[in-house]
Structures are given as C-alpha cells and as structure tokens.
Write a structure and sequence with these properties.
Chains: A alpha/beta, B alpha/beta, C alpha/beta
Radius of gyration of chain B: 24 Å
Number of strands of chain B: 9
CATH topology of the domain at 269-420 in chain B: Nucleotidyltransferase, domain 5
Radius of gyration of chain C: 21 Å
Largest interface: A-C, 51 and 58 residues
Strand content of chain C: 5-15%
Low-confidence stretches of chain C: none
Shape of chain C: globular
Strand order of the largest sheet of chain B: 7-6-5-8-9
Mean pLDDT of chain B: 87
Strand order of the largest sheet of chain C: 2-1-3-4
CATH architecture of the domain at 269-420 in chain B: 2-Layer Sandwich
Largest sheet of chain B: 5 strands, mixed
Strand content of chain B: 5-15%
CATH class of the domain at 269-420 in chain B: Alpha Beta
Helix content of chain C: 40-55%
Structural class of chain C: alpha/beta
Oligomer: heterotrimer
Order of helices and strands of chain C: HHEHEHEHEHHHHEHEHHEHEH
Structural class of chain B: alpha/beta
C-alpha cells in the first residue's frame, strides 16, 4: 500500500465518523436545550416536518419540537406499541394514523422523549397544514391537551402540479398577518427580518450539499443508500437545524465523506456491512420504523441499494432545483412549503419517481404502502401500474405501517421482497443471455 | 436413475415433486405439514419417491408385457393400495410402541393400568380393520396416517368411553401425544421390504394361482428389481413461507410465488396469468413465456378472498367444505351480499337465513363475493391475459369456477382460455423442481441433507 | 282504498327515491339533451358552491359514491384494504361508464383520500376536468376569503375553457337567490323533523334531500316544498323513541337501510350531518350592495360555514356546536356513525366525545361502510342505547 493510499484511507476513516458525530452532538445539544427550556426562558414551538419553518422559529429565538420525529423514534425504540395501546384505550380508533396515537400515548406516559428526558410542553402549536389532513386533527387534539395557542398556516395543495401566485400570496398573507404576529407574541419579541434572511442563506448552502449527496447515487456503485441511509441524512435539514451553521458543516462533511466513498468505489454501510451492489432500487413511501433494521436487511441481504426515495423529500424537494432564497424571505418560505413531496399531486409524484428511475438507472422500484398514511398511500396501486407502464421496470409492493408493529408481517413482507428480488434477478439473467 | 427434487412447505400440506433429468415428472408426494419441517420435507420426498417407483414399475410392466393391459393396471392399483396398507400397519405398530413408552412414563402413574388395556384393544381393532381402508373401491378421506388412524382410534375410544371402560379425554390425550411422535419418526423399514409384502397380498387377488407360477415369478422379479434401482437425487430446491426458517440452505430456496408461477406455466404452457386461491392466502401472478413471474400481488393478511372464508361458511352451515359448491350451484335467485369480511360472514349468513332467504342463494352470493375479491387482486397485479390458470384448493369448487368464468368473460372477454388442474396443489413443488433442474444444468446444484 | 288511507307523501317520495337511486345519471343526460351545450359538473362531498356551477349554465351533480347497489369489480383494485369505500365505488362509477356524462369532477379538500382521488381521476380520465377545490382554513375575509374567492374564479375559468357559459354577475346573483330558497326549504323540512320526527322520518328526509343531487336548486326547492306540504297533512303514528343527533356521516353515506334500522331500533334521528354539503352554509347568503357575488359566496363559506371535521376549529371550542344543537333541538343523545377508515370522522370523534361527556350527554358509536349489508349488530347497539337513555337519561 502506497503512502497516498494509506493517507486517503486514513482520511476516509476519520471523516467517516465526522458527520455522524456532529449530528449526534447537534441532537444531544438540542434536547439539552429543550430539557432546560423553562429555566432558560426559551419558548417551545411544536410543528411538522412538511412545511417546517425552522429558520423562522430560530430567528425568533424559539425551539422546535417535531412530534412526528418523536413518534418515529418511539417506533425505533420499540415503545410505540404500548403508546398506541394507551391511545386506543382512551378511545382513539384503530383506523387512524399511528403517529398521532403514539404521540398521545407518549404524552399520557409523561412525555418522555427519545433521549430519555421529559419534553417540554408547547408554548405554541405551529400548525403547518402541509400535505397531510391528519396534521390538523393532531394539533386540535394537542390543543385540547395543552391548552396553548395554535396558529394555522394553510398551505394550499398543488392540485394541478403548479405553484400559482395566488397560492404563494395566500401563504405570504398568512405569514405576515397571522403566523408571525402569533409567533412574536409567544416569543416576546419582534421578528428581525435580517435574522431570518441570514438563516435562509445558510439553508441554501446546506441544500446544495444535500443535493450533491442525493445525486451521488447516480454513481455505480452508489456510495449511499438513499432510503435507509437517507433517513439519517435528512435529520438536520428537516428538523431543528436547517438554517444553522452546524447544518452547513454537517452537509459539507457528509458530502466529502460520500465523495471519498465514490472515489474508492465503496457502497453504503448497511446492517450487513458494505455489500456488493446487485440491484438499484427506487423506493416510494415512508419506511417502517418498528422493524427498520429488519426491513433494511431484507434489501441489503440481496445486495439491493436504494438509489433514490420519495420519503426523503417530505421536508423539501431540493433536487428539482428549489433553494431557500434569502432575498425574498416570505415568498421563499411559501415556495418551500408548497414544494414538499406530500403536497404534490399524484401525477407529479409519478413523474418524479419516473425521473428518479431513469436518472438513477434503477433496476426496479418498490412501494412500501403504509396503513397510517392516506396522503402517501391512496393511489399507490395506480402509481405502481403507471410506472411499470412508463418505465418497463418491475415494481414491488409491500404493506406495513409507520409505528404500529402489529402491521409489520415479517414473513409476508419477506416473502414478497424475496420474490421481487428473485424476479429482478431472473430478468437480469434473461437480459444477459 | 438421476432426479431433481422440488419441495413446497405449505401451511397445511407439504408437497414434493421429482423430475428426471429430462424434466419429466416421475413422482409427486404429499403429506400434512407438521411442526418438524425437516421431517415434513423428508416424508413428502419419500412419498414422491414411492410414487416414482410406481411410475417405474408401470413402465417396466409395459415394457416386459408379462400381463395384459387391464391386468397390469389392476395389479398396479392393488399393489399401490396394499403398499399403503403395509405402510399404515408399520405406522400403527410404531404408534403402539409410542403409546407403551408414554404409558410407562410418570404422568400416567395410577391411570396406567386402566388406560393400557383399552389402548391396546383399540389399536388391535385398528390393525384388524386396517385393510378395510384399502380394499378395492374403498374411499379414504386422505392417505395421511393422522387422518386414517385418527378416525379409527376416535371411533374405538368413543365407544369404550360410552361403555364406561375408559376416560375419553385421557385416552385421546395419549393418542395425540403418541401420533405426534409417530409423525416425527421416519420409517426405517426398507421400501423394498414393504413392497414385497404388498406384492404378497396383491398378487393372489390379481394373478390367480392356476398355472401361472412362472408369470408370478417374473412379476416378482420385476418388482424386486424396480424396488431397488438406485434413485440419485442430484439437485433440490425448497420453497414455502410463513416459517421462521426453512430446513434448506439459503441458496436452495426460491420464493413460492416464483415457484408457483413456474409450475403453473409448466402444466399449461400458454399460461400468462395465474390466480391461486389457497386456504390461507391468495395470489395473482403474471408470467412471461418462459414461466418467470413478471408481477404479482398477494392477499396474505385478510381471510376474505381466501379458502378460509369458505371454511367458516361451511362450519356455520355445518356441512362439508366439498358440499358448498354443489349446493350453491342450485341457486335460483340472485342475492346481494355486501360484507366480504370473514368475521361477519357468519352473522350475515344467519341474518339472511332468518329473513327467509334460501341457503343455496346465499351461498351463491358468498361464492361470488370471494371470487370478486380475488378478481380485484388479479386486476391489481395487471389483469388477465390469455391463458388464465386457476389453482389452489378453491379451484375444485364448481361454483367458484363457474363465477370466475362468468366474471372473466364479462370483464376480459370470452376469448380467455381458463385452465384448472386437479393436481394444482403440486404446482409450487413442480416449479421448485424446475428451478432445481436449472441449478443442475448451471452447475450450482444443492443436495438435500441426509 | 279510501283517499285518507293513502300517505300524502307517497307520490313525491317515490319520485325522490327514483332520483336518489339514479346511479346511471339518466336525469343528467336528459338535462343535457334539453339544454344543449350545458356541462354536467360532478362534485364529491362535503361541500361545493353549486350556485357557481348553475350560474355558469352547468348542472351540478352531487356524487356520493355507489352506495350499496353497486358491484365493485374494478374499483377495489385501486385501493388497499385500509382505505374507505367511497373512492372504490366512485372509480367504479367512472370506469363502468355510468358517469361518463360528467364533463368535470370537483374534489373538495376534505381529506387526503378525496384529494388523491382527484389526482387519480386526472390519470384515469384525462379528457375530463378534475378540479380541486381548496377550501380555506384561514377565516379572515381578506386572507382566506380572498384566496377562496380566487379559487372560485379559477374554477369558473376552467369550466369556461371547457365550454361553460361565461360567468355573469347577474346569473350568479340569481343562482344564489335560488340556493337561498332551497336552503329555506331544507330548513323548513328540518324544522318539521325537529318538531315531530314521526311526521318526517330521517330516512324520508334523507331521500328527499338526496334527490337534489342532479337537480337545479329551483327544482329541488320545489320538490322539498311539495314534500313538506304533504307531510303536514299526514296522519302520524308516534313511536316511543329517543331523539338523537347523528354525527360523522358527512361523506361516505350509510345505506338507507341502516338509517331505517336505527329508526326501527328506537332512535329518532332529529338532526344529522348526512350529505352535509346542502346545509354547509347556515342561513341566507346576502349579496351586499356593490358586492361581486363571487365574494358573497366566499364570504358565506367563511362566515356562515358550519363546523365539521374537515374545517379547522380555529378559536371555537371543539364540540360546542354539537352540544348546543343537542340542547336546542332538544335531543337525548348522540350517535357517532363514521365510515370505516374515515380519518376526519374518526380523528374528530374523541374530541367530540370529550365535549359530550363534560355535559353529561349520552352517546354511542359504530362504523359502517356504504355497502354494509347486515345491520344486526348496529340494531342491537342502537336499541340498547335507546333503552339506556330512556331508563337512565343523562347517565346512560
């Protein structure tokens, strides 16, 4: 081994951990702040990932909490079953979204968050009504529980696949005259527009690097897994950190790590170690959280790498070109909200997945149809047929849930996935002959 | 001779199919699935081997022509039945051993004496009456030891319980424990020995004594020869799901969806769409011209749309599963059933009966309901292309096939050829065997662990 | 049979039933034949501004799915098992050609199922208009009202581009006036029900209201009027039933037989949210001096829109409206009847139940599907509820 290779290897080893370590620290920091919010007088805003206005929240010196992320964390830590049971005992229907029930149950159990510390109650519920009907009910429920102010931001649906001036104006009007005043009221100070603009500029920087990370998957082999690995990458950009210096560093570091892996031809790190890329897959739909690693293994075991996914775009679709534009702060926030994946109409979603399949040279696509989420799930069978028709690439279809373990039938999903990969394999062999 | 093996570990039954090197089916076997998967596989494989030997016997007799065509058939039938009888007797003997072993155990303590004698008596009766299951024209519910011995034993136990000779639960419990062990026991009596005993029984019935000593000697020679021809398994593939682990190494496993598609296509080479309505799940597949699955949809969570739905209905009406179809065919009036949920099937049935609707009409509607659900799955998987093959236990239900044909004609046109095969239960194992053949030809064959 | 023995409503009710059962939209085709060039605009629940469509010379056609009369063959293949039934039957209606006479379909923003169904419609029927109606969740006239008025104008433009008559203020004012009249007739019908549910059974009121699905406001008002007049002449038999408000059935409708089952089981439904769209706007819509009637429509929704699961609660108290209605009617209790898997109804329910509990108002709940075929369990439950309320009143 030459010196240069050793040096390169050394750098890779060191930098491999850097972005991860940073993210860990960022999260720990954030929860520490939350834990001491009362003492420090920091106000707490609960909001949602799609349409999250992190820059605005931070510009006003407040701390965000994302109940969706709490719920998925509860799922990964195997607490969600008991939380859901609590909520159902309290009268919530078995038919409704398990994120909501998990959150309600977690609240009833003392609101202990994923890091083991109690989460502070909200000073404000910022109801960013983007891409999901259930969000509205969620915060109506929480309002009853916490008896705190709620402010609604109605983000219109891109029903025709376009953003109109009227839609943008509606959001800007709400921001100016309803949302920001409500937030200022809680924060106890006026919004300094420059603070917002500063953060928006930082967001754009981070977004550039994030897109580079996504697009690295075009490489063969892909240095990332754009779904299972991807959910770790979206943490900073979708939650409390977009608009911060930390996030800019994180995505810069991540990009460097990914670039280094591209240079050495390494694939992503999976539960089975680094595997050989046999299949390139595009995935539509949220992951299952209760059996996250089991689900991942069903892919990695077969050498299947996910090169692109739609779920990792729920908090913003940057690879189509959108960047936060600090020169038009309110308009850009509006465009950001409008562009989140679940706010796109079905035909546009299909176009996007088709684009991913083609530009990432995928062998197949898979739909994980999730019981809880009508926003994603309704129409997915049509999506399946349309995509097969348009791309000629085989589509797989499995059914599970977000955080209710009762709906993850391991044997059934295993059966379907194994069959799907064997199908892809046979197709490849046939093509090769 | 060389062969390849395909094994399908289903939820109720385990099937095995043997192909020769040219890919012709030489034997298929079936047994009830049980908790020891390796044993279930081995038993199914043994059954298939038995069937293979009978196939070889058939060929040998046809070649040697020592008997006329009719006599050959009769002899083979009787030989097969007598062979089954010998197997059954061997299993009954083993059952006796197991019961003795259990009785000697501690838990029987003071009940030993009072259970021991009746148990032996019942067993002796079973042995005495065993041949009745296998006389010409006898109809057996199945060939599974559990079914045959179970029925016989229960009858004996009930009678004695009524006469106060024995506590029913205790003797039944003894039987249940013992049979569990018998099923896990692999027969160690040589196939050739059993076949020879069977021939001793069968021969006098068919080839009578008078002046045919030479013929009988020749036949015996043929049978002995065929019974000991070495059959070498050169490759195998296993399939099945719903298990934590299959008793095969990973490389020897293929998805049962792919196996099923391949098998259906092998039986009906024009097949492009397959619908399998099994007991526990339903699947709809599209296959290409080489039998490879190109898309599929599963209903693996909801009982409605599966055979189980009909099972509940049969239970509700207190009739046999096989009676549902014929009864439904006698419907004269269209009744609308709306709820397809199995949980409410019983309630809906009772309500309609109480409203005065006829069983036949309600059943017809229920059949329509389950088939419609299955059709939905087919539509999801890509529709129906010519030819369409219908498989699974439900395909034997005449009402189901009738409704299916009607719906297909209505929605996909009357040009669609609909295939159904009485042996469709073997399609998964057949597909697995074909994959095993592929593996053999590609030089990556696996062998079944001894 | 002597004239007095014939139920005075029999004739008008029969006509209403025929209209309500018209899944093939025969009456719509007849209308289009009689008005060449007129478009038929279908709209899904909950609410659409029908006066706008009428002003454009279109016939609004309320679509509630296929109910219990439709065999679903293809519709089911588009939806997973944990999705409600109405999109299946609606797709079935579409694919089977039954509603081919509709030139456009409007999908109001009530939940993600209907929202995505609109997208599916675009893909499945690209030659027909699929229009999303994004109802505002901000109720400030200059913000949400402005946006909503913009939506209405956008929809008008889309229909015009498809061949509808250009929107004229006068036509819209007239349509609003017609709608006001229809609304008054419904109010009169409801008043009769509230006063004496034996005089107008819930199932009958249902049919009469449902009959308006493909009628102009004028024709519908006439029909309701006729029924109300006839109902006043009825000889009524009184039942010892409890008075209930039914809540949660604003989109996918239960089968009529289910409503009848509830009545037979001892519950008089004196108020409900079946087909809520007809009653969405409370009171008259008054076009102000110099006001563009499109703005009137928008304002009416903002200021007079009634509370329901798909409408943001804002600063109101959840359940206050329900409690007030129970007190005012008065009613003895509430029945929550939600379509299986209905997110709006099922997510709202615990909050509404909490409000009722606080006021000691008894309630019971069940789920249904539009094609539910057997009502045994529901009948027993409703019967038990009715008995309990009679025996123990508020503590039931």
């Amino acid at each position: 081994m030459t010196t240069t290779t050793t040096a390169a290897a050394a750098t890779t080893d060191v930098s491999k951990d850097r972005s991860q370590a940073r993210q860990k620290r960022m999260i720990a920091d954030h929860f520490h702040k939350l834990e001491h919010a009362k003492e420090t007088g920091k106000k707490v805003v609960y909001t949602f990932v799609p349409g999250n206005l992190t820059e605005l929240i931070d510009a006003l010196g407040m701390l965000p909490v994302l109940p969706e992320i709490n719920a998925l964390q509860s799922g990964m830590r195997k607490r969600s079953a008991e939380y859901i049971a609590e909520a159902e005992k309290a009268g919530h229907s078995e038919d409704v979204c398990t994120y909501v029930k998990c959150d309600i149950g977690m609240m009833k159990a003392g609101n202990i968050g994923p890091t083991g510390t109690r989460l502070p109650p909200p000073d404000l519920l910022l109801l960013s009504y983007t891409g999901c009907f259930t969000f509205m009910k969620w915060f109506e429920l929480l309002k009853q529980e916490y008896n705190c102010p709620v402010v609604m931001l109605h983000v219109p649906y891109q029903a025709d696949g376009v953003i109109t001036n009227e839609m943008r104006q509606y959001i800007v009007d709400q921001l100016e005259r309803v949302v920001i005043p409500a937030m200022e009221n809680v924060a106890g100070k006026k919004l300094d527009m420059q603070e917002l603009e500063k953060r928006l500029a930082l967001s754009a920087k981070a977004e550039d690097d994030l897109v580079a990370v996504w697009e690295s998957a075009r490489h063969r082999p892909s240095p990332i897994d754009g779904y299972f690995g991807g959910v770790y990458y979206i943490g900073p950009i979708f939650s409390a950190f977009r608009g911060s210096e930390d996030a800019v560093h994180y995505y810069r570091e991540l990009r460097e790590e990914v670039t280094a892996r591209m240079a050495t031809g390494e694939g992503p790190v999976t539960p089975d170690g680094t595997t050989n890329e046999k299949f390139r897959i595009v995935v539509e739909g949220p992951p299952n959280w209760t059996h996250f690693y089991d689900f991942w293994r069903m892919f990695s075991r077969e050498g299947a790498t996910v090169v692109a996914s739609t779920y990792t775009r729920v908090g913003g679709l940057y690879d189509l070109g959108f960047r936060h534009d600090s020169s038009k702060p309110l308009e850009t926030l509006a465009d950001y909200c409008l562009g989140c994946y679940t706010n796109m109409n079905l035909p546009s979603r299909i176009d996007l997945i088709e684009r991913y399949i083609k530009s990432y040279d995928a062998d197949g696509f898979l739909i994980n149809s999730v019981k809880s989420c009508n926003s994603f799930s309704v129409g997915q069978l049509l999506v399946l047929r349309e995509l097969e028709k348009r791309t000629g690439v085989p589509g797989g279809f499995v059914e599970s849930d977000l955080v209710d373990p009762r709906y993850f039938g391991k044997a059934n999903i295993d059966n379907r996935l194994q069959s799907y990969f064997q199908m892809l394999d046979a197709k490849k062999r046939k093509g090769a002959r | 001779m060389k062969c390849v093996v395909g094994i399908d570990l289903g939820s109720t039954t385990t099937k095995a199919v043997l192909l020769d090197e040219r890919g012709s089916v030489i034997g298929q076997g079936i047994t009830n699935s049980r908790s020891n998967y390796a044993v279930a596989s081995a038993v199914a494989r043994d059954e298939a081997l038995t069937a293979a030997r009978f196939t070889m016997l058939q060929r040998a007799f046809e070649e040697e022509q020592r008997l006329g065509a009719v006599e050959t058939q009769t002899l083979l039938e009787r030989l097969s039945a007598c062979f089954r009888l010998e197997v059954y007797l061997a299993q009954l003997e083993q059952l006796g051993h197991e019961m003795s072993r259990l009785l000697a155990g501690e838990q029987y303590g003071r009940h030993r004496a009072e259970t021991d004698a009746p148990a032996r008596d019942i067993l002796a009766e079973c042995v005495r009456d065993a041949h009745l299951f296998f006389v010409p024209g006898a109809r057996r519910r199945s060939d599974f030891f559990r079914d045959l011995a179970g029925a016989a034993f229960m009858a004996g136990a009930e009678r004695r319980a009524r006469e106060g000779q024995v506590v029913f639960e205790r003797i039944v419990a003894l039987f249940d424990r013992a049979i569990f062990d018998v099923e896990t026991w692999l027969m160690n009596v040589e196939f050739a020995t059993l076949l020879s005993r069977a021939l001793d029984r069968a021969m006098p019935e068919v080839v009578t004594d008078a002046g045919r000593g030479e013929t009988r000697k020749d036949i015996k020679a043929i049978v002995d020869r065929v019974a000991t021809i070495p059959i070498e398994e050169s490759s195998y593939v296993g399939t099945g799901y719903g298990r934590q682990t299959l008793p095969f190494p990973k490389e020897a496993v293929r998805s049962e969806i792919l196996c099923h598609g391949r098998g259906a296509h092998r039986v009906f080479s024009g097949t492009r769409s397959v619908l399998d309505i099994g007991g526990q799940d339903t699947k709809a597949l599209q296959v290409d011209d080489s039998g490879m699955v190109t898309s599929f949809q599963m209903n693996d969570r909801c009982a409605a749309g599966c055979g189980r739905y009909l099972g509940y209905i049969a239970d509700e009406l207190n009739i046999g599963l096989h009676e549902l179809g014929p009864l439904a065919l006698q419907s004269t009036k269209v009744v609308k059933i709306n709820s397809t949920c199995t949980v409410f099937a019983g309630a809906e049935l009772r309500e309609r009966l109480s409203l005065g609707q006829r069983r036949e009409d309600i059943l017809a509607a229920l059949h329509r309901s389950i088939v419609t659900r299955a059709m939905s799955l087919v539509a999801r998987s890509g529709g129906i292309r010519n030819e369409f093959t219908f498989t699974g236990g439900v395909c034997k239900n005449p009402m189901a096939t009738k409704v299916l044909s009607e719906l297909i004609a209505e929605h996909y046109g009357s040009d669609i050829v609909i295939n159904a095969h009485p042996d469709s239960i073997y399609m998964g194992a057949l597909g697995a065997a074909l994959f095993a053949l592929d593996d053999l030809e590609a030089g990556r064959a696996r062998l079944l662990p001894a | 049979m002597t004239p007095e023995r014939v139920d005075p409503v029999a004739d008008v009710l029969a006509r209403a039933e025929a209209l309500a059962d018209d899944l093939d939209l025969r009456s719509v085709r007849a209308f289009k034949d009689a008005h060449p060039g007129a478009l038929a605009v279908g709209h899904m629940p909950i609410y659409s501004p029908r006066p706008l469509f009428e002003a454009l010379g279109c016939l609004p056609v309320a679509i509630f799915g296929g109910g219990d009369q439709l065999d679903i063959i293809r519709g089911d293949s588009y939806f997973q098992s944990y999705i409600c039934h109405i999109p299946r039957s609606t797709i079935e209606l579409g694919l089977s050609g039954r509603i081919a006479t509709l030139d456009a379909m409007v999908f109001p923003s009530i939940c993600d199922v209907i929202r995505n169904l609109g997208g599916m419609w675009k893909l499945l029927f690209p030659d027909r208009l699929s229009i999303y109606l994004d109802l505002p969740q901000n109720f400030d006239a200059s913000i949400g009202g402005r946006f909503y008025a913009g939506e209405l104008r956008r929809i008008a433009r889309e229909l015009e581009s498809k061949g509808a008559k250009p929107l004229q203020a006068e036509a819209l004012r007239q349509a609003i006036a017609d709608e006001n009249r229809r609304r008054e007739c419904i109010t009169a019908l409801d008043a009769l029900r509230h006063e004496d549910p034996s005089r107008v059974r819930a199932s009958e009121a249902y049919t009469v209201v449902r009959a308006g699905a493909a009628l102009t406001a004028r024709a519908h008002a006439d029909l309701i009027d006729e029924f109300v007049t006839a109902a006043k002449r009825r000889n009524v038999r009184h039942f010892d039933n409890v008075r209930v408000v039914l809540c949660g059935s604003f989109c996918e409708q239960p089968p009529l037989a289910l409503i009848r089952s509830l009545e037979k089981a001892g519950c008089d439904i004196v108020d409900d949210d079946f087909q809520l769209g007809w009653r969405m706007i409370e009171g008259r819509m008054d076009v102000r001096e110099g006001e563009d009637p499109v703005d009137t429509l928008a304002r009416a929704y903002i200021e007079q829109g009634c509370p329901t699961a798909s409408r943001y609660i804002a600063d109101e108290v959840k359940g206050a409206d329900l409690v007030a209605r129970v007190r005012q009617l008065p009613a003895d209790g509430v029945i929550f009847a939600a379509a299986s898997f209905c997110d709006p109804a099922l997510l709202d329910q615990p909050m509404l139940e909490a409000a009722l509990r606080q006021q000691n108002i008894p309630f019971t709940s069940f789920k249904y599907a539009e094609n539910t075929g057997q009502f045994q369990v529901i009948r027993e439950q409703a019967g038990a509820f009715s008995d309990a309320v009679k025996l123990w009143g508020a503590s039931a």
